[in-house]
Design brief:
Helix content is 77%, strand content 3%. By secondary structure, the chain is an all-alpha fold. A 3-stranded mixed beta sheet has the order 2-1-3. The radius of gyration is 24 Å and the shape is globular.
Length: 327
């Protein structure tokens, strides 16, 4: 359709406008991640800060994995789950931070439609996996403290592998179903995402398709993957606290509290920020609040986990010391 035809025949203007609207909705394949681009004077500081966080996260979690795998004394269910959590946090950081660093360094904030969906899938899968693993670790502590005589029977190798495999499979299916629905949406409004990665709610606000079914499914999955694991954590620790209060010696109480304190700290950090962002309607989503909370659970929490678990655990500190000395 050329300009001469439209000039000669004004009646086809509506057809041309309809064609242009469809073209605009289907031809744009890139999004703009504008999370940190609005403050150019802060870019060098942010780059240095995020690079340091990334390096510390990778080093800390890899050391945890190496220490657990190399020390026979740590070949127990609790440390098996911790190694899986550290591996998940390592992958989680690799999903988010390298792209943020590249965007800041090159000043190009684009990401392809496919790349955005892939990043969103791995982000959701690994975040859900963190969620399930924290629940599994809480159950492990419940069995160890409340049912110590049956611990080796209940938490056998096959049961531990089954729990981790079920966590991986559940997180994969839940994330894949949402990403598959998201891939069907049309994005006819602005393609600028006011975030530093392809998060679910900011991307959902750009869709011009009907998102009601998606939102229902999102809240159903949030209940399944958020409320159910959190309930498992709370019930486990309610039994643990009840058992601790019945221990007569102060030394025994302190020993049990020190065992559970690390896990409780990580759970509080994780759920506090996740609930702040995701357990709200998409219409009331705030970009600034979402970004601030997202920095905590995508960057800060994976970095802090190794320190929380190693500094509060003498067995972990001993294994790390032996690993570093031998190296």
């Amino acid at each position: 359709m050329n300009p001469e035809e439209t000039t000669a025949n004004p009646s086809i203007w509506p057809l041309r406008q309809s064609y242009q609207e469809i073209r605009n909705r289907t031809s744009i394949s890139d999004f703009l991640l504008l999370g940190f681009s609005q403050h150019p004077e802060q870019q060098p500081l942010l780059f240095g800060l995020f690079l340091a966080v990334y390096l510390v996260t990778m080093l800390g979690n890899l050391l945890i994995i190496l220490a657990i795998s190399s020390d026979p004394h740590l070949h127990t269910p609790m440390y098996f789950f911790l190694a899986n959590l550290s591996f998940t946090d390592t992958c989680f950081s690799c999903t988010i931070i390298p792209k943020v660093l590249l965007n800041i360094l090159t000043q190009h904030y684009t990401i392809s439609h496919t790349g955005c969906l892939v990043q969103m899938f791995f982000f959701m899968e690994l975040a859900l996996l963190d969620d399930f693993l924290l629940a599994v670790m809480a159950y492990d502590r419940y069995v160890a403290i409340c049912l110590p005589l049956h611990y080796t029977t209940i938490m056998g190798p096959q049961r531990c592998l089954l729990l981790v495999a079920a966590s991986w499979l559940s997180s994969h299916l839940l994330a894949f179903s949402l990403c598959l629905l998201m891939s069907q949406f049309s994005f006819c409004a602005s393609h600028s995402i006011p975030h530093f990665f392809c998060d679910l709610l900011p991307l959902l606000k750009l869709a011009c398709s009907d998102t009601r079914i998606f939102q229902l499914m999102m809240f159903a999955e949030a209940a399944l993957s958020g409320v159910v694991p959190l309930t498992c954590v709370l019930v486990s620790y309610a039994h643990i606290i009840h058992t601790i209060l019945r221990i007569p010696s102060a030394g025994g109480k302190h020993k049990v509290f020190s065992t559970c304190g690390s896990h409780l700290t990580v759970v509080t950090l994780f759920y506090g920020t996740v609930f702040l962002v995701y357990f709200q309607p998409s219409s009331s989503y705030s970009a600034d609040t979402g970004m601030a909370a997202s920095v905590v659970y995508t960057m800060v929490t994976p970095m802090l986990n190794p320190f929380i678990y190693s500094l509060r655990n003498r067995h972990m500190k001993g294994a790390l010391w032996r690993l570093l000395v031998h190296k």
